[in-house]
Specification:
The chain is an alpha+beta fold. The protein contains eight helices and four strands; from the N terminus they run H-H-H-H-H-H-E-E-H-H-E-E. It has two domains: 42-134; 136-191, CRO Repressor, CATH 3.30.240. It has a four-stranded antiparallel beta sheet. The longest helix has 27 residues, at 12-38.
Length: 194
Amino acid sequence: MLVYKYDVHQFPNTLCISSVMLLLVKTKLVMEIFIRIFGEGKNLDTLQMSCRGVVVFLIALALIRISGRRSFGLRTPLDNVITILLGAILSRAVVGVSPFVPVVVVCFTIVILHRLFGWLVTTYHKTFGRWLEGSIILLFENGKFRKDRMKRAMVSEEDMLQGIRKSALTEDMNKIDKVYMERNGEISAIRKKQ
């Protein structure tokens, strides 16, 4: 059994300093391991970029889950913005152009902003939703193309016919009651009641 000549409480500062020093050494070792695995700056080798890619993939997956299904389901302008921004910003972390942690924080902020705007769109649909995502445009009604609205929507007759074939599964315009350009830019058709 070891017997210490001094009481531990006589030198509390020495113990604190040695604990802090030990913690700093461990932290430095962990950081060196992380730098060896993930690299630093722009000079990354293939393995380091691959490791970063795996981590960014997992982070992106988490961010998309936080953002919600809306991000990749509806394809409205709001949803397209988050898709483009997350892809562009996260790629900077993979190739080492920007520091890793700030990139993740920025992406998290964008996802939270997307959730906020999504909530505002659903809560204040008439005002905020129309301002942010636009409104539907009637392109065809009573057997006639609405040329003024088609021009505003920048849609040709062939674009409309393609949308009709896709949504109503017909080429016969006599079977179509109305055609709309939805808020997400897709063209949808409503068949006449038989």
